[in-house]
């Protein structure tokens, strides 16, 4: 059976959500953060050279990186899923863009902000512009379509979900000025698969949906 190694309050919640959307059986192993470093505990670090989550085990296969894991699971277990529009689908290009935007842009911006704050500095204006551009693009896209990948939920939404919800629990960012995003998060929060995923991955931690 597929094993998901999930570090609490981390982007590995994506993999749990994906499996719930696909209706796949999996074994979920939860890890709490080290109380001093706030990073992965020793038993999770020992599994992979990068010492981070997400990780999955599938037989003899041990795989990290959110995007790689999602492509692997879809390709092996659900190649015909509607969560990934094919090249002939009108939403194909938008899905691809936002699927990669999740880590290439939004998560990168978040990590830059964390690094800058960790040394007691402020974001340089060019980097801050990247951050504001990204959130503006999110609000604009959700005024054009119900989901990032188009008319229906895709793996682009699952990739972006952590940054739009759980990650915001650790900063003071308000989205009151983003009505499209607020409406979108209500749609996400109403999904049975999302509710099951968060209940399993983050027991006792309510999702940040507003």
Report the helical percentage: 40-55%
Q: Approximately what portion of the residues adopt beta-strand conformation?
A: 5-15%
Order of helix and strand elements from N to C terminus = EHEHEEHHHHHH
Summed up, the helix count is 8
CATH class of the largest domain: Mainly Alpha
Structural class: alpha+beta
Q: Profile the largest sheet.
A: 4 strands, mixed
| Quaternary structure annotation | single chain
Low-confidence stretches: none
- Bulk shape: globular
Q: Name the strands of the widest sheet in spatial order.
A: 2-1-3-4
Distance between the termini: 35 Å
The total beta strand count reads 4
Number of domains: 2
Gyration radius, rounded: 17 Å
CATH architecture of the largest domain: Up-down Bundle
Q: Kindly report the average pLDDT value.
A: 92
CATH fold-level topology of the largest domain: Glutathione S-transferase Yfyf (Class Pi), Chain A, domain 2
């Amino acid at each position: 059976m597929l094993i998901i190694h999930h570090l609490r309050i981390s982007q590995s919640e994506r993999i749990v959500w994906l499996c719930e959307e696909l209706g796949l059986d999996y074994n979920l192993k939860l890890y709490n953060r080290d109380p001093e470093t706030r990073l992965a505990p020793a038993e999770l670090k020992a599994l992979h050279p990068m010492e981070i989550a997400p990780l999955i085990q599938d037989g003899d296969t041990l795989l990290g990186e959110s995007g790689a894991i999602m492509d692997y699971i879809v390709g092996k277990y659900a190649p015909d899923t509607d969560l990934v529009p094919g090249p002939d689908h009108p939403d194909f290009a938008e899905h691809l863009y936002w699927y990669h935007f999740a880590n290439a842009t939004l998560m990168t911006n978040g990590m830059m902000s964390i690094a800058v704050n960790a040394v007691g500095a402020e974001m340089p204006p060019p980097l801050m512009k990247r951050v504001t551009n990204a959130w503006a693009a999110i609000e604009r896209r959700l005024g054009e379509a119900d989901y990032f990948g188009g008319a229906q939920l895709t793996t682009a939404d699952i990739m972006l979900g952590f940054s739009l919800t759980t990650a915001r629990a650790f900063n003071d960012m308000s989205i009151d000025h983003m009505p499209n995003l607020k409406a979108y998060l209500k749609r996400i929060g109403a999904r049975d698969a999302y509710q099951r995923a968060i209940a399993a991955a983050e027991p006792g931690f309510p999702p940040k949906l507003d």
